[in-house]
Amino acid sequence: MANYVLKELSEEMSGGKKVLYPKMQTYSLQDYKSVLKKMGSYSGAFSEGVMMGVFDALITTMEKWMPEGHSIKIDGLGVFSLTLGFDEETPSEQLAAQNGNEAAGPKEKYRHVCIKGINFRPDQELIQRMNRCADFERSEIEVKVPKKSPYPLEQRLEKAREIIRQKGQMTLTDYAQATGLERSVASRELKRLVADPESGITARGGHSHKVWVMKG
Question: Over 90: is that where the pLDDT of 145 sits?
């Protein structure tokens, strides 16, 4: 049996309405070896080496095929497709679009687009099979309400600028602590600030190495 908690959506995402949603409590991250061992317990017909070879072949196929413009559908599992974004180090195409001169300059000038992630849309049959195995129990009585910032947006933006002026750059933790926002809410807000040309803030790096700096 798995547990879940009820959480309240932040005002920024719910438009000021009270919206609740269940969030599953995850207690472990199973690594590659653990997954192979578990797969072997369900099907003894394939050795661990064979299953590892299939996984490696799938990863290589995705690596080589998907950047050419292909999505990949695996029956019973789902569809994998790429998510693109602007290269935050050299966002010339984004700037050109904002300035209204997309047609200006050679084509190579506007090729600063990169892969940002992989979307996965699960097969509905897989979801139905999982639901037949699922049994969820609420682990906490109280609804978890997101922490609100005591500062208005303009003041949060100024705090971000001040951190960058003092430290040369700002991390997600810096912004969350300075504004009183939860990390997930702070992350979404920083995405909106980066997309706003008036904020003066842009992002560099990615994942755990991502920082925010002033546009240069």
Answer: no
Pick the closest to residue 186 from 195, 199, 177 (CA basis).
Answer: 177
| Per-residue pLDDT tens over the stretch 98-118 | 555 555 455 545 557 889 899
Domains annotated on the chain, with CATH:
1-64+128-146 (no CATH), 78-122 (no CATH), 153-214 (1.10.10.10)
Contact 139, 3 (CB under 8 A): yes
What gap in Å lies between CA 149 and CA 157, rounded to an integer? 12
What pLDDT is stored for residue 100 in this prediction? 57
Tokens linked to 3: 């547990």
Gap between the Cα atoms of 212 and 172, Å rounded: 8
Burial of residue 189 (CB within 10 Å: 0-12, 13-18, 19+) is buried
**pTM of the complete model beyond 0.70:** no
Q: How far apart are CA 9 and CA 117, in angstroms?
A: 24
Contact status, residue 98 vs residue 86, Cβ threshold 8 Å: no
Among 150, 159, 147, which Cα is nearest to 190's? 159
